[in-house]
Amino acid sequence: MDAIEGASVRRAVLDPLITQTIAPMLGEALARASIRAHVQRLGLSDDTVDAAGVTALLEGIEKGLRVFVGSERAARLVATIRAGLAREAAR
Amino acid sequence: MNRGFALVLLALACALVPGAAWPELAPRARLGDALALPLLGGIKLALQLLAAGFASACARTFSRDDRPRRSFRALALAMSGFAAGQAVLLWWHGRGLDAPFPSPADACFIPATIVLALALADFAVAHARGGLSLVTPAQLRRTAGLATVVGAAALGLPLAAALRGLEGPLTQTIAAAYPVLDLAVVVPAAVVLRQLWLLRGSPLWRAWSRVLAGVVCLSLSDVGFAYVAAFELARLDPLLDFGFAAGYLLVAWGAWQHRRALA
Predict the structure, then answer these.
(1) Record: contact B131-A60, CB cut-off 8 A
(2) Which tens digit of pLDDT belongs to each residue from B29-71?
(3) What are the φ/ψ torsions at residue B152 (nearest 5 degrees)?
(4) A26 and chain B: CB distance < 8 Å anywhere?
(5) Is the CB of residue B12 less than 8 Å from the CB of residue B246?
(6) Which tens digit of pLDDT belongs to each residue from B70-120?
(7) Which of B134, B200, B204 sits opposite A68 (nearest CB)?
(8) What is the distance, to the nearest Å, from the Cα of residue A63 to the centroid of all Cα atoms in its chain?
(9) Smallest Cα–Cα separation from B73: which of B88, B62, B59?
(10) CB-based contacts of B202: which residues, under 8 Å, 6+ apart?
C-alpha cells in the first residue's frame, strides 16, 4: 500500500491488473463487472484514479472477494494487485 | 479425481436409468431385493458421507469470521443428516425389505432438508451482502418469485395426491412436509444460481454449478418420489435411485472442486 500512496494510477493500468489477478479464480465476467460496479459507486469516471480512489476501489473489491474466497485469500489477491501497482509506479 | 467423479456418475446412470424403461434391467429385478436394497442404500450412504466430508473440508478453508464457513458447515450438517436417515433405512434394506412410511428415518431426513434450505439461504444472504453483489434486490426477488411459482406448480399435484391417498394425521403431515421443504430448498438454490451467474467459466462456477445441480437433483427426486408414491409408478424407482445418488455425488464433487479451487 505504501508503494502506491500518493500516486495516481491510469485506469488503463489499474483495470487490467485487477482483472488479471481476480479472473483466474472468479472469471473474467465477474472481475470486469465488479470493477465497473465499484467505479460507478465511487464516481471514478476519469481516466486516472487518485490514491484515495485506488484505496477505496481495492477495499471494495477485497470486501466482495471475501464471500467467495475467504478473507485471507481476498487479502492476498488485493496484496498482489497492490504489488503490481507498485511495480508499475516504479517503472 | 474429476474423472473419478464423472466415471462414478456414468456408472450409476448406466446401472440405474435403463431399469426405468426396461423393468427387467432394474437392480432389484437383476439382483433380488436381498442384495439390491442394501447395495443401493450403501451407495447412497457412502455418497452422503463423501458430500458431508468435502463440505466440511470446504468450510475449513474459510477463516472463523468468514460467513461462507458457516454456510458450508450447514451444508455438511445437512448431508450428515441425510446419511443418518439413510443409515436408519439400512436397518430394513439390510434385510432386503422396503422401509415403511413414515419411519424413524424421516426424523433425520426432514431436519436435514430444513438445514439444507437454511444453508442455501445463508449462502444467498452472504452473497447479497458481499461487496461484489452485482445482482439487484429486485432481480433476486423476481428469481425467488419465479422459483416459488414453478416449484409450487410442480409440487401441488403430488402433494394433493399424497394427502388423499394416505391415512393418519402424522403420515399426512410428513408426506406433505417433503414437497413443501423441497420448495424451501429450490427457491434459495435459484437465488444463489442467479447471484453466481457472473462467475461462469471460472473454477468457482464449476464447483458451485455442481453443488446447485446436486441440490436440484435431490429436490427433483423427492418430487418424483411423491409422484411415484401417489400414482403407484414403482417401475420408476431406479430413476429415483439415480436422482438421489447423482444429487449426493454432485454435491460432493462440487464441494471437492470448491476446496481445490481455493487450495
Answers:
(1) yes
(2) 888 888 999 999 999 999 999 999 999 999 999 999 898 999 9
(3) -65, -40
(4) yes
(5) yes
(6) 999 999 999 999 999 999 999 999 888 888 888 999 999 999 999 999 999
(7) B204
(8) 11
(9) B59
(10) A23, A24, A25, A26, A27, A30
> How long is chain A?
91
DSSP lists the bridge partners of residue A48 as: A10
The length of chain B, given as a count of residues: 263
CB-CB neighbors (< 8 A) of B69 in chain A:
70
- A88 is written with which cell numbers? 508499475
The sign of the torsion formed by the CA atoms of A47, A53, A56, A59 equals: positive
Global pTM value: 0.90
Give the C-alpha separation, B137 to A36, whole Å: 18
Best B123, B139, B202, B209 member to test A by mutation, with max A CBs in 10 Å, is B202
Residue indicated by cell numbers 470486501: A63
Residues of chain A with Cβ-Cβ distance to B199 below 8 Å are: 26-27, 29-30, 68
CA-nearest of A36, A29, A26 to A69 is A26
Flag whether residue A41 sits within 8 Å of chain B, measured between CB atoms.
no
